[in-house]
Amino acid sequence: MRPLVRPAADEDGEALGELDRRTWSPVHAVTPRPRPPHGPFFHAGNPPREFLVAELAGEAVGYIKLARPTPLESNGHVRQIQGLVVDAPARGRGAGRALLRAAMAEARRQGASRITLRVLGHNAPARALYASEGFAVEGVLPGEFLLESGYADDVLMGRSLAL
User: Fold this and answer.
1) Helix, strand, or coil here: 53?
2) Strands of 51-56's sheet in order across
3) 136: β partners
């Protein structure tokens, strides 16, 4: 079964919040460990319109956030992936790749000609996925984040959206 990717809706907030908490890991998260009480997943800085959701058998198993990196007009041709989450049982079933491809198609639909992302240097599976879809390393910020496991590099990746 192939994952279905669709735009997020307001009613996805609870499921995506739970998915976000369930998949949090000190290996890839730069935010603190989630602790109750949990606020709403969707809010002014995290609106549903910036998310695509992957479903398998009608259940949300992943999401990707696609947004403008800055509010500047001179940067309006760029979209940035600001999060990609796939639930552990769904990994290896194409959800991450489907979300990534859908985000690139949505960025093109929005008129973007370039897409970027940031990934931790030690996150080899994510980096391999991005590279396999044409993303190239465009910069590295050494030791940019201090995580539970120590300092981690911030790897900047990007690609053209030209077909």
Assistant:
1) strand
2) 4-7, 51-56, 59-67, 78-86, 114-120, 150-160, 136-147
3) 158
Per-residue pLDDT, 27:
79
DSSP letter at 90? G
pLDDT grade for 35, boundaries at 50, 70 and 90: very high
Query: Would you give the DSSP letter of residue 37?
Result: S
Name the region of 58 (left: φ>0; alpha: ψ -120 to 50; beta: rest): left
Asked if 113 contacts 17 with a C-beta cutoff of 8 angstroms, the reply is: no
pLDDT tens digits, 125-136 = 999 999 999 999
Instruction: Report the distance separating Cα 159 and Cα 115, nearest Å.
Output: 6
Alpha-helical (H) ranges within the chain are 13-23, 95-109, 124-132
SS3 readout for 137-157: EEEEEEEEEEECCEEEEEEEE
Query: Tokens for 1?
Result: 């079964």
